[in-house]
Amino acid sequence: QLDQIIxxxxxxxxxxxxGTETSSKYExxxxxxxxxxxxxxxxxxxxxxxxxxxxxxxxxxxxxxxxEVIRVIRPLRCNSCWFPCFxxxx
Length: 90
Prior knowledge:
This protein has helices at residues 13-18, 45-50; strands at residues 6-10, 25-29, 35-42, 57-63, 68-74. The chain has one domain.
């Protein structure tokens, strides 16, 4: 039973040194700091570079045994003055 979660993004060495964004990885911990889930963002380099804030992605959340428990999918949605009605959705 989880009453609180803490999410820590894992920063890769290449990302820290070169300033390039890589696929994000996250540890999801309970209030005691114990890892209960692990999340990985899947998307392409093109999406990260050109569409960063509105990019499409899939996040797979797995438990400590590696079994996927949640999948979050966000499609690419245009968000500009030309298309203000296309809000982000997951």
